[in-house]
Each structure stands twice: as C-alpha cells, then as structure tokens.
Amino acid sequence: MAVAAPARPAAADLLGVFTPEVFAAHLASQAALPSWWLERKRSAYSRFESLPMPRRTDESWRFSNIAGINLGGFSPAADAPAPGNRRAPEALAIAPAATLSFLNGRLSASTPLPADLAARGVVASAISGAIARHPGLLREHFMAQPQKLGSAKFAALHEAFIQDGAFILIPRGVEIDGPIVVVHEVSGAGAAVFPHTLVIAEDNARATVVDHFVSADLSRQFACGANDLYAGHGAKIAYAAAQCWSPEALSLQFNSTVVRRNARVQSLNLHLGGRQARHESLSQLQAPGGFSEMLAITIASGSMECDQRTLQIHQAPSTKSDLLYKNALLDRSRTIFSGLIIVDPDAQKTDAYQSNRNLMLSDEAESNSLPGLEIQANDVRCTHGATSSRIDPEQEFYLKSRGIPQKAADELLIFGFFEEVLNRLESEELHAALRKLIRAHLRR
After folding, report:
1. Number of C-beta neighbours around residue 125 at 10 A
2. How far apart are CA 258 and CA 86, in angstroms?
3. What's the pTM?
4. Model confidence over 295-326: pLDDT tens digits?
5. Cα gap 384→429, rounded to integer Å
6. C-alpha distances in angstroms, 144 versus 81, 154, 285, 417?
7. What's the rounded Cα separation, in Å, for the pair 358 and 335?
8. Sheet strands (E) in 344-380
9. Distance between CA atoms of 309 and 311, rounded to whole angstroms?
10. N- to C-terminal Cα distance for the chain?
11. Residue 50 phi/psi, 5° resolution?
12. In the chain, how long is the greatest CA-to-CA distance?
C-alpha cells in the first residue's frame, strides 16, 4: 500500500505565534507611546498578514532554502533573563564614543556621549525615547524605503513587533572621532527579537557606527532586524555590523542606505553565525557626487546557509558605488549572492562595480552567484563579476614546508583572502577588532 507523503506545513504553522492576539498583546505593552507610532505598527501588521510567504518560484528567493524560513516555535522575547542564565558576549575591542546595549529588544545598559558632543546636538538613544523627542525625523527616516529584495513580508513583521532600537543623530557639520557601538543581544531558546539601528547624518556630518549582534547562548533563536542609514549632503558614515548569532539561529536582516550630494557611506557586514542567515542591502544614490561602498565578509561553516541580496540604484548623474563581497565556505555550508546594479536614465557618468568572490575550503560546500546589470543610460562605466576558487596548493605547501600546521596555514590564507576587504576600513582599531572576532570564530 502506498504511503502518503507528509503534508506540507500550513501557512499558519510557518508563521508561528505571530497571530493577531499576540500582536494585540504587544501593542498593549506599547500603549504609552504616541498614537502615530502605534498606527504605523497596526498598518505594518496588516501588511504582514496580507503578503504571501516566499515561494521557490520567486526570483528574489532563487536558490534559497524556503523550508528553513519557518517561524514555528518562536515567540517574542520575554523580559531580560537573570544574569546567571546567560553568558556575557565577547565585547568588541574598541574604545567607543558611546554605547547602547539591548538585551531581548530592550535597552539594558548605555554609556553616554561626551558632554561636548551632547551639547552640539548629537543623540545616541533608544528609539523609544526618540519617538517623543524626534518624531519628525523618525517619521521621515524610519523604514522609509520600500523593500525591493524579496522580504517585504518580514520587514512588515519587524516594523509591527519592534520593541526598541538605536536612534543616532549627528547634526549638521558635527564630526565624531570615536565609534558609537550598539550591541543587540538575544537570550533564551525560541526567542524572537527585532533589532533596529537608525543613523541620520545631516549635511557635512561624520560618524562611525558599529552594530554587534550576539547570542547569549547556543539555542535556536529568530532575529528579524533592520537598519537605516541616511547621509545628507557632504556627510560621511562608516558603518560596520558584526553578526555573531547562535549557530542555530534564523536571521533576516534588511539594510537601507540613502546617499545624498557628495556624501559617502561605507558599510561592512561580517557574517559569522546563524543556521540560515539572509541579508538584504539596498543602496540608493540620489544626488550627484554620492558614493556607496558595500563590503561583506562571510565565514560559512557546518550546514550554514548565508543568503546575500544586494541592489545598487543610481538615480542621479556622477555617482559611484563599489561592492565587494567575500565568502569563505567550510564543511557543508552554502552561500548565495544575488546582486543587481540599476542605472536610471538620467544617471549619466555612473561608475559602478560589483564583485563576489568565494573561497571554497570543502568539497561539500556550495556557492551560488548571480551578479547583474540593468543600465538605462548610455554614458556609464559598470562592471560586475563572480569567482569561486580553492586555496592555492602551492601557497599551502609553502606554509606547511615552513613548519606551519595545516589548520594554521589555512587560517593565514583565509585572512589573506579577507584582507582586501578589511584594508578598506579607515579605522585601524575597528580593523583589529573585526580580525579578532574572525580569529576567535575560526579557532572554535
């Protein structure tokens, strides 16, 4: 007798406990906040309910493990657990100008800005406080750009259930030397968190912001995060994110960058954790002279899937973007890179680059690369490409012949592969801190 195939999970099962009743309870916990903020949440939840789940036939989810995007078993993280129930996360070895630490979506600790920066109007606070003090800026910049890379449903979930996040404002003409560090930590099996960092650099402002995403334990967790970077005319933002979630975590992260006239934004995303991690990065160059540099480093190990989707949109003439994503794949891991450069008809003199390079360290690893161009102007310079290769056996033999064990030799070669990305950072301190995280991850 034929055996029936197991039934596919129903959509309600895939969406877990994010039901109208759970949303109503979340909204009630936010009742003290302004009505416009609560209305945004209601609208976001309506979008979440109405939008379909991703399907294998969706081009924006090509090669992705759709079955892994299952929210069953997750629920919004409870209040912060007792200190004895978690381990302290590894700190970034940098001296910050200020810090904000969030545990399970709630502000747990902070160190204030120096008095002189605060007196000049610099703000590094929780979004929950900025809602009342800076409502106009939040209305204008918080998740203001529509999702274009496939995860509109999950971005709506993020906006509906966000508990808190970081709000960073650098007023016109103010320059900050030290980085502002934001730690987003999750603790507890089945915990779901919605981290957010909003950075607004007004005209001719300059700042460095670092996000550090960490799990306090090795359990299964869900992180659905977003960040918004806005660089006004002549502004300069250096942004780095170190993703160190649990190896059992499901992670979805959405980045939106807006670059105005003669502004520059450099973003570097380091991916070290997660069972399945999807990162979407949208960069829009909206005025002449804008420059967006998009960098990423991934170490994929075990059975991890790292799914990277990028979009560089040139909307004005004489703009430049430069993307370099490097992945090192070990064990049975797999990576997906799908990137697109769009040049609008009026964006003459565009200069755009896109490169994805994969270092294969296992016969069982798999990399998928889909670079692309969509050019509607006729006076541009655009290049794109992807490569996958193994460690050069001659280089490995040379190191081993000098008495260096194979594991240490491979580590040196991996660092050599990543150094091209790390060397683009202006901050030596940040460079060293990220190298330390990578080294600790490789030696586990």
Report:
1. 19
2. 37
3. 0.94
4. 999 999 999 999 999 999 999 999 999 999 99
5. 31
6. 33, 15, 15, 36
7. 9
8. 351-360, 366-375
9. 7
10. 49
11. -85, -30
12. 79
